[in-house]
Amino acid sequence: MALNNTYGARPVQQETAVGAGIQLLLLALLGTAIGMGPAGWLTGLVFAFALWAVLSRALHRSRLRTFGPANRVTLGRAILVGGVTALVADSFESAPPVTLLVGLTAVALLLDGVDGKVARRTGTSTALGARFDMEVDAFLILVLSVYVAMDLGPWVLLIGAMRYAFVAAARVWPWLNAPLPPSTARKTVAALQGVCLLLAGADLLPRVGNLGVVLLALGLLVWSFGRDVLWLWRTARAAGTATGAATDEASLERELQDLVPVPVSVSERQPVG
């Protein structure tokens, strides 16, 4: 049985290896096109290895038998994000190829809604796929915030770091891990982060315009996270109050049972023999 499970997992693991190979090919094309420096190459290689290692481990733990078409779309987006990451790292050493960076980012953002639709139409929605999609989105926002911060200042990093700060806070306050209700507003705000950062990074607007766009994105993100945290806190508080009330009621019932003698049935009062 163990051999069958291992054999069934091979095609899934092979897809992650193919993804890593495509990532390396993209890095080679970018390096040839722009003469990418050591920082870009090193960052791109680290991203490729980390993507392969983390995704392979996640697939092994989830025991998926097939990778699925939706995950292939997300993997393609992750490969594009790896290219964007390498270009942003390279921009610390030389002038960034803005057109190429914007093009890769735009395609990655456009494909953001495709994997979810593919998963629903093919009936291949999984918890791993949803988490994979979310992590790719979060990392792209982080990379874009780093790029824009080089022009507008380090405060822009708050946009990319906010989701990771939330995850870290959830380790301290477990009530933050509770599931949130679906929200169109939350999805819209999340999608706008990439669009606003891409617009600022493309440098199509004057600096004041870029500043306004990024401030708007940050304000919406703070509002969205604040609303969700408040909802989680109220829900946890209400659950704690209900649990406390149930505990108090049970304690009161036990005390009453100790004070009031239990009625003895007629048969129990009859002497034996």
TrEMBL record:
Coiled coil: none annotated. The keyword Nucleotide-binding does not apply. Keywords: Membrane, Transferase, Transmembrane, Transmembrane helix. GO terms for biological process: phospholipid biosynthetic process. GO terms for cellular component: membrane. PROSITE patterns: CDP_ALCOHOL_P_TRANSF. The chain crosses the membrane at residues 20-53, 211-233. Pfam families: CDP-OH_P_transf (PF01066). It comes from the Bacteria. GO terms for molecular function: phosphotransferase activity, for other substituted phosphate groups. Belongs to the CDP-alcohol phosphatidyltransferase class-I family. This is Membrane protein.
